[in-house]
C-alpha cells in the first residue's frame, strides 16, 4: 500500500533523528492506517508533481488534537521521487497494489 499526501515542503513533517520522520496529521480510517504499516508514504507539493520525501511506514498514532486524524512514522530507505497519477481525493491518495 502507498499513501500519498499533499504536504508543502517543510510543513507537517518532523524529523525524529537519523532517517526517521513523522508526517503531519491526516484523515485516514483505522483499517487503512493498520494496512499501511510496512507500506510506503510519499509527500507531494502538488498532485501532479513527484514526491519530495517519503519512505517505509513503521507505525502510526492518533493525533492528540483530533482523533479522526493519524500521524505516520516512516523511515527514508530508497527512492521517493515518485508520481501518483490516480486515486487523488483532495489532499491524499491511497494506492493498493
List keywords for this structure.
97 residues; mainly beta; 8-stranded mixed β-sheet; 1 helix; 7% helix; globular
Can you walk through the features of this model?
- The protein has 97 residues and is mainly beta.
- It is 7% helix and 49% strand.
- Strands 2-3-6-5-4-1-8-7 form an 8-stranded mixed beta sheet.
- Strand 2 and strand 3 form a beta hairpin.
- The longest helix has 7 residues.
- The chain is globular, with a radius of gyration of 12 Å.
- The protein starts with a strand and ends with a strand.
N-to-C span: 6 Å
Sheet with the most strands: spatial strand order: 2-3-6-5-4-1-8-7
Number of strands: 8
| Overall average pLDDT | 93
Q: Could you state the order of secondary-structure elements as H and E?
A: EEEHEEEEE
Structural class by secondary-structure content: mainly beta
> Which value, in Å, is the CA radius of gyration?
12 Å
With helices defined by DSSP (H or I, 4 residues minimum), what is the helix count?
A: 1
Percentage of residues assigned to helices: under 10%
**Low-confidence regions:** none
Silhouette:
globular
Largest sheet: 8 strands, mixed
Portion in beta strands: over 45%
Amino acid at each position: 500500500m502507498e499513501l500519498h499526501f499533499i504536504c508543502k515542503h517543510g510543513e507537517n513533517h518532523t524529523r525524529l533523528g537519523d532517517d526517521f520522520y513523522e508526517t503531519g496529521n491526516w484523515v485516514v480510517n483505522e483499517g487503512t492506517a493498520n494496512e499501511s504499516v510496512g507500506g510506503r508514504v510519499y509527500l507531494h507539493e502538488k498532485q501532479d508533481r513527484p514526491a519530495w520525501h517519503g519512505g517505509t511506514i513503521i507505525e502510526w498514532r492518533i493525533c492528540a488534537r483530533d482523533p479522526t486524524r493519524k500521524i505516520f512514522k516512516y523511515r527514508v530507505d530508497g527512492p521517493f521521487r515518485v508520481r501518483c497519477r490516480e486515486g487523488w481525493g483532495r489532499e491524499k491518495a491511497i494506492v493498493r497494489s
